[in-house]
Amino acid sequence: MEGVTISRIDKTWAPIPGTETNIDCDTLLLSVGLIPENELSQMAGVRLDPVTGGPFVDENRQTNVPGIFAGGNVVQVHDFVDNVSWEAELAGEAAARFAKGERMAEGQVSFKPGRNIRYVAPQKISGENDVTLYMRVREPEEKVQVKVGDVASKKFMGVKPSEMIKLDISSDKLKKIKEGTTEISVDCHGKE
Ligand SMILES: Cc1cc2nc3c(=O)[nH]c(=O)nc-3n(C[C@H](O)[C@H](O)[C@H](O)COP(=O)(O)OP(=O)(O)OC[C@H]3O[C@@H](n4cnc5c(N)ncnc54)[C@H](O)[C@@H]3O)c2cc1C
After folding, report:
1. Mutate to test the pocket of ligand 1, among 37, 74, 86, 89 (most ligand atoms within 8 A of CB)
2. Which of 21, 63, 80, 180 registers the highest number of CB atoms within 10 A of its CB?
3. Whole-number Å distance between alpha carbons of 187 and 77
4. CA atoms within 13 A on the CB side of 167
5. Number of neighbours of residue 101 by Cβ within 10 angstroms
6. Would you say 45 and 65 are in contact if contact means Cβ atoms under 8 Å apart?
7. Which atom of ligand 1 is nearest to the CA of 87?
């Protein structure tokens, strides 16, 4: 390697001619996005979210296939292993309950990623249990408020796609969801 050429890109990520700059170097380090390892999920017939690349799950990390629970980077690529451990405990506990014969309510209410929200996980909830929503935004923004319908909201000084955001919702707040609701929009409201 003798150098790299960088350039500005347009909205379709295509290089803009005339904006090229050459940088002499002998090493290039790439910082790239990861995707869930979904080979086993696909083999098991688990329905995958095209955005996360991992299974659609509910708050118990239950997939569409009875008895298959998912947690960690197979569901969504986490920033920190602490969150992976937490999600894995949730999935493991639910799997143990299933193995003992308990059948959990399936998620009936889906989250629809709205303004500047790329994805929400879990993608659906039963509404009966406390839930922590994990999300990533599409674009960096400062001083935002993330709203989950009229059920919950949280302010952030700044958000960016590389940093997962978390929002805890208690089962008490979830009682605000009107009966028959099947979809709740999650939006990141900016300053405008
Ligand atoms: C370069 C890098 C640096 C990181 N640094 C940090 C850090 O400093 N601090 C931090 O908190 N987090 C860090 N993370 C994030 C953290 O490592 C991950 O979030 C965490 O390891 C995910 O755990 P997991 O068990 O879900 O998945 P993994 O750790 O990826 O485990 C999945 C396992 O499943 C196995 N597997 C996959 N497919 C199959 C199959 N078909 N059959 C059998 N086995 C299979 C894989 O071999 C692997 O052992 C880093 C991640 C990366 C990539």
Report:
1. 37
2. 63
3. 21
4. 25
5. 6
6. yes
7. 26
- 70 alpha carbon to ligand 1 midpoint, in Å? 14
Q: What domains, with CATH codes, occur in the chain? A: 1-30 (no CATH), 33-104 (3.50.50.60), 106-192 (no CATH)
Q: List the chain pLDDT tens, one digit each, 192 residues.
A: 999 999 999 999 999 999 999 999 999 998 877 889 999 999 999 999 999 999 999 999 999 999 999 999 999 999 999 999 999 999 999 999 999 999 998 888 999 999 999 999 999 999 989 999 999 999 999 999 999 999 999 999 999 999 999 999 999 999 989 889 999 999 999 875
Please name which of 174, 93, 99 lies closest in space to residue 133, comparing C-alpha atoms: 174
Name the residue with the closest Cα to ligand 1, atom 2. Answer: 79
Which candidate, 123, 151, 117, places its Cα nearest to that of 136? 117
Question: What residues flank ligand 1, with Cβ below 6 Å?
Answer: 37, 39-40, 72-74, 78, 80-81, 84
Give the neighbor-by-neighbor strand order of the sheet with 152-159.
Answer: 124-125, 109-113, 183-189, 141-148, 152-159
Length of the chain equals 192
